[in-house]
Amino acid sequence: MAITEVTRQTTQPCLGQMVKKLINNHCCLTLLRFFVAHPNGRFSKLAIVHAIDDNHNRPEVEKSLMQMVDEGILNLKIENDVSFYMLTREEPTRQSIMEMGEFDWRHWQLVLDYI
């Protein structure tokens, strides 16, 4: 009698596709760098907008936050009607994001030119 082990694997989103989506949006890159600088923090939408919105473009920041939640980069938790955002806890994705976040703007431009 043979015993067969069956494991379930969840598919991780392709990071290349994720990077292409992020590169085309300066606000997403700014958010990525913000969360890499504060990897264990959780922030309200208002705090994030005040921290990174130097062009007074709150709708763009909100749109980028939701895009990053949809991509699995950020987690969203709502407590007492306040939305809190934090970097994902899924280790493979989190590690890749941490490495990408260390790029400076010049490196991102090189990646954009390559793609």
Number of helices: 6
CATH superfamily: Winged helix-like DNA-binding domain superfamily/Winged helix DNA-binding domain
Order of helices and strands: HHEHHEEHH
CATH architecture: Orthogonal Bundle
**Oligomerization:** single chain
How far apart lie the N and C ends? 52 Å
User: How many strands?
Assistant: 3
Fraction in beta strands: 5-15%
Helix- and strand-based class?
A: alpha+beta
Name the features.
alpha+beta; 6 helices; three-stranded antiparallel β-sheet; single chain; Arc Repressor Mutant, subunit A; 115 residues
Please tell me about this protein's structure.
- The protein has 115 residues and is of the alpha+beta class.
- The protein has one domain (15-114): Arc Repressor Mutant, subunit A.
- 56% of the residues lie in helices and 13% in strands.
- It contains six helices and three strands; from the N terminus they run ααβααββαα.
- A three-stranded antiparallel sheet has the order 1-3-2.
- β2 and β3 (82-87) form a beta hairpin.
What can be said about this structure in brief?
The protein is α+β, with helices and mostly antiparallel strands. The protein is built from 6 helices and 3 strands; from the N terminus they run ααβααββαα. 56% of the residues lie in helices and 13% in strands.
Summarize the topology.
Blueprint: H1 15-23, H2 26-37, E1 42-44, H3 45-52, H4 58-71, E2 74-79, E3 82-87, H5 91-101, H6 105-114
Antiparallel strand pairs: 1-3, 2-3
